[in-house]
Amino acid sequence: MTKQEFQKLTEEGILLLDGATGSNLYKAGMPRGVSTEQWILEHPQVLKDLQRAYVRAGSRIVYAPTFAANSISLKNFGLEKETERLNMELFQVSREAVGHEALVAGDVTTTGKLLEPAGELTYETLVHVYQEQIGVLARAGADLLVLETMMGLEETMAALDAAKSVCDLPVMCTLSLESDGTARFGGGAAEIAETLDAMGASAVGVNCSCGPDQLVSVIRTMRQNASVPIIAKPNAGMPVITVLGDVVYNMTPETFARHMEALVEAGASVIGGCCGTDASYISELRKLCVCSEGQI
């Protein structure tokens, strides 16, 4: 997919993404503390069923489960030398799941490591790490890329620089922002939107973090500071930890969609769900979307 084709797609109306992956894998039995990437390859049907449900619900884009398949994060499980194989095979699981009924985005996220001077990771090293992962995703046949749940502006810039250096795919960028628009590792909503837009991102916005009811001002600020489409892919509200240690999101699909409508009014035009959402949430969001066939 070219950047021009992505732009045309966003001009058709609200573009619907998928919902959560991780929280649904836990529901399906994935233990905590394991490599998500390795577990998916051992249980591919779980991911395929989830992504097929998203497409049936109306998702135009699904995210390949390559989220943390970078060499720094994979090192936590002794899998850093498997970066190429894991990204290639994980992407193929998604492609097999949806075929060409939906676009498949190569998914890239934070390494969780701080850049200098706050940490020991250099910008150049981070660019190299992302080049490795993104290069594989491009070769695997990704339709586009998404940099998601990024924790700071600088690391997002490094990933975007890496993407631009290895391919010409459209890149969507979303950070995990607090309700006041700040990112954990630095940057605010206005600066993030303006900077990533200027660097060539095809869309910018927010994912994860908090619920849609807390993001209206953040989305409005990003819309005011970027010329590209704005993404909203929040959690199903704030999580509650049960006495058994389970994470529960209490916002219903209907309530989620109602708050997402406010984000659309604030300027978001690429929407989906993150933690706590499933296909039922996407079905509700579909009612907000205008596709090429007209109002759904």
Outline the structure in words.
It is built from twelve helices and twelve strands. It has helices at 3-11, 22-27, 36-42, 44-57, 71-74, 83-98, 123-140, 153-166, 189-199, 216-224, 253-266, 279-286, and strands at 15-16, 61-63, 103-108, 144-150, 171-175, 203-208, 230-234, 239-241, 247-249, 268-271, 290-291, 294-295. The model is unreliable at 291-296 (pLDDT under 50). It has 296 residues and is an alpha/beta fold. 44% of the residues lie in helices and 16% in strands. An eight-stranded parallel β-sheet has the order 1-10-7-6-5-4-3-2, with helices on both faces. A two-stranded antiparallel sheet has the order 8-9. The protein starts with a helix and ends with a strand. The radius of gyration is 17 Å and the shape is globular. β11 and β12 (294-295) form a beta hairpin.
In short:
Zn(2+) binds at residues 208, 274-275. By secondary structure, the protein is an alpha/beta fold. It has helices at 3-11, 22-27, 36-42, 44-57, 71-74, 83-98, 123-140, 153-166, 189-199, 216-224, 253-266, 279-286; strands at residues 15-16, 61-63, 103-108, 144-150, 171-175, 203-208, 230-234, 239-241, 247-249, 268-271, 290-291, 294-295.
List keywords for this structure.
296 residues; alpha/beta; 8-stranded parallel β-sheet; two-stranded antiparallel sheet; 44% helix; 16% strand; globular; disordered C terminus; zinc; HCY_dom_sf; methyltransferase; zinc ion binding; BHMT-like
